[in-house]
């Protein structure tokens, strides 16, 4: 659902204040941080009743140095709240995003980071899906069309990141923004419902949970736009793509690995 | 050369035939019930999980599918390569081929998370997916072999059976290549990710299909009290020996290829040394019982004339086949993905640990049900259509050697 | 009892095939040949169980559960006139579904969430009707016609907003826009608070 709130301001009593606040704060930020950014972005933002196109490619930068273990846990629980999935630790349980603990046996170096669908540019899950249910949206988000997913699980076999889960049980009381059901495969959607609603101002639930006014370990944005915050941070500090050897060019990038 | 063999329907009307069919029908019914239960309850009642996403049903299904391709060997040898000694067995070979494929496909379909969406699987195609190619290859194969069977059986059309046989041969080579490539093209998994799997699956199909064929031949001839000469069996026996040795060669090559690259030492060490059930299955059942023992039973001079040893060898090849497919399919998934080379990884999603899998009774029932369905189809066609030679004596064989 | 289940099942397949064929036609914009071919095939397969099914269905005609139709105040009609909705609601839903899932267009008026927001409101006595209940808006007709739908295996069968919020003096267009915006904000609780504040 997307409302064109500019033409019908009366119809949006609750959202408008929040959105206005976002807009205002973004505008103020743009004055200080990067004049011109907002202008550029609003000029390419799609209208909500237009199909997504490939002028944008959504991605996320995760600065693992700036994230504590507690932050990663926050990501996970925020995603669970947003999409209504639970994990009790059973091997059949779904996990859209998980906390991964790394330990370098040689040096004893430890690190925790959030792991989810990497939204590849050339996703193997899309290649192998027999019905095309696993697909990449024009704006780079890799999704499962659960209406055509037949539950063959081949995509789970093909994914190098173990990003996908199969729904092994009957579900009830799913959330309106995240329809999900038994017998199909699911994974991180990069909060596509937020992106369709808020465009360039969208913030996925996991990032929203850890970012605050004075620090921003998870930056969501348009990788195609050289002036976006994510692109500028990538240009300045670089980042790692997981399993870069496979050449899949994931949209999720990690700093501090 | 005109085929002089007299074919006839299975005449057996004993309670034995119906008993066999009845037992098989119960197995098939149980398989359907199990599939229904897994569909209603969800796959959590199976042993499969988010780590081992393909389990026992897929072992059965892929066994049946590649055995189906191999079962057509006999027909190809006769029509395409002109080995006329096999001509009397060509029809049966085609029938078995179709039946095995139907059983295997049934398992694959019934194991889907949404088996009710068969129409989606048929109407939506992603042409880059090997799975989608295989849907076309499998269904097309049934049509091709059915046409081939008809051309062989209709005397006026018999001349066309050779081109049809060539088409069927090429088709099944592509089909088995496609089946092997389901795994071979998976770059993410270290245990797969080699095109070697395609030719290996072809050779496996030759041996598995032939083993099932020999057992079917001996069982049905015995059941119907028909004469089965040693000459045919000796040739089939030799073929089985060659194919089994070829499997061994490919397995050897596969593991040496993997072992040569340092990055695969982990997965090889897992499969060959410390993989528990997978290591045991590999060495004892796949290599020992499935390759070496059958070779002994087939080639030891003292056993060369023994039919019991041949039956035993066929059974062992099939046991080895299941072990091999179990190790490839489930062992390959059990080894964790290496997302962060050089780090020890852990999470609540079973990263960095060996995936756990214990096949449930439902999966076994589904698998056996599919197998039973295949045999039911074979027995029913054999009873309805004249596909079985009335007699296969030795003198007939000695008359027309290739 | 078993025969009724069986016959329902066969009829469900029948309708489901027609719906699938329709969606394929819409997707590829092809004339009716595919449906026709499919129908012929299905008729041939289904005649015996179909006859059998028709018998059992007619015997249960006496106790049909009627759908609860909830019409919010001042709402004259659904997004289309009733007769069109009756016939084509699945077409609309399928078209909008593909636009939303594949292209990210969430502004269309034929959204399932929209249906639920109006048609699945609790009754006057506050009783919440779920998709499994016979008097649930979709279920009532779909059960009567034995057309199985699986929408609510995944989708929420409960309105994202309450009847009160659906609006007092809104016309249909405003109402729909309002529903859309309310859902799109996804801040249901905040909204409830605001509404409560305003009513004070």
Give me a quick take on this structure.
Chain A has helices spanning 13-33, 37-44, 69-83, 124-128, 154-158, 192-198, 205-210, 229-237, and strands spanning 58-63, 97-103, 110-116, 134-136, 142-144, 165-166, 185-186, 218-222, 252-255.
What this model shows, in words?
The complex is a heterotrimer of chains A (257), B (402) and C (200). Chain A is an alpha+beta fold and 257 residues long. In chain A, 30% of the residues lie in helices and 15% in strands. Chain A has helices at residues 13-33, 37-44, 69-83, 124-128, 154-158, 192-198, 205-210, 229-237, and strands at 58-63, 97-103, 110-116, 134-136, 142-144, 165-166, 185-186, 218-222, 252-255. In chain A, a hairpin with a 6-residue loop joins strand 2 and strand 3. The termini of chain A are far apart. Chain B is built from 14 helices and 5 strands. The two termini of chain B are 12 Å apart. The longest helix of chain B has 31 residues, at 230-260. With 200 residues, chain C is mainly α. Chain C is built from 8 helices and no strands. The longest helix of chain C has 27 residues, at 2-28. The chains are: A alpha+beta (257), B mainly alpha (402), C mainly alpha (200). Chains in contact: A-B, A-C, B-C. At the A-B interface, strand 2, helix 4, helix 5 and strand 6 of A face helix 5, helix 6 and strand 3 of B. Strand 2 of chain A pairs antiparallel with strand 3 of chain B, so a sheet runs across the interface.
- If you compute it from the alpha carbons, what radius of gyration of chain C comes out, rounded to the nearest whole angstrom? 19 Å
Contiguous runs where pLDDT drops below 50 for at least 5 residues of chain C? 1-8, 53-61, 167-174
CATH topology of the domain at 8-246 and 360-393 in chain B: Formate dehydrogenase/DMSO reductase fold
Provide the succession of SSEs of chain B. EHHHHHHHHEHHHHEHEEH
**Number of structural units classed as domains of chain C:** 2
Largest sheet of chain B: 2 strands, antiparallel
Based on the model shown, name its key terms:
heterotrimer, A: about 260 residues, alpha+beta, Alpha-Beta Plaits, 2 domains, three-stranded mixed sheet, two-stranded antiparallel sheet, 8 helices, globular, disordered N terminus, B: about 400 residues, mainly alpha, Formate dehydrogenase/DMSO reductase fold, 14 helices, disordered C terminus
